[in-house]
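Researcher: We plan to redesign the surface later, but first we want a full-length starting point. Tokens attached.
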């Protein structure tokens, strides 16, 4: 009688099916995780919390308040930034602009919000805002970034109305 021996070089079809199913599951799970992460609003490190009744801007969720027509000061809203995994910065932001800048700020409201968010997205984990020197550096970055969108010299000064690190 002839004995049949399994060829060690010949792949086992049932093992191949199990490996293929496991790889397929991992790929599908990874894609689903990636999609849910990119769509999640909670994944952002910066949140906009502002609103107002005397506001301007084209989006109702991103409104600026005119604080002083004489001084050209505009309230841009309240933000929360994750500094570390257990510490957050909560701040309210106003800007002093050059004369007759109302229409430009109104037309650029979404760009201004984007500029503010870019400062924190590009900075990564912020530790410096805990010091006076760090706050000054943050103000300078914000002025520079906002002006890159609305025009050089439009924003003259940044004011923090509330500045709390928790």
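Model: Full-length starting sequence:
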């Amino acid at each position: 009688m002839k004995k049949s021996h399994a060829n060690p070089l010949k792949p086992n079809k049932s093992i191949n099916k199990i490996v293929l199913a496991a790889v397929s599951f991992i790929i599908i799970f990874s894609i689903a995780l990636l999609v849910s992460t990119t769509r999640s609003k909670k994944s952002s490190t910066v949140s906009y919390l502002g609103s107002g009744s005397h506001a301007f801007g084209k989006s109702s969720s991103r409104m600026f308040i005119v604080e002083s027509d004489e001084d050209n000061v505009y309230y841009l809203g309240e933000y929360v930034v994750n500094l570390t995994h257990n510490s957050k910065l909560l701040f309210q932001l106003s800007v002093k602009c050059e004369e007759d800048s109302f229409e430009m700020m109104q037309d650029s409201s979404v760009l201004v919000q984007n500029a503010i968010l870019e400062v924190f997205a590009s900075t990564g984990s912020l530790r410096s805002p805990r010091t006076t020197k760090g706050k000054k550096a943050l103000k300078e970055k914000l002025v520079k970034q906002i002006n890159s969108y609305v025009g050089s010299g439009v924003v003259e000064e940044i004011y923090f109305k509330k500045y709390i690190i928790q």
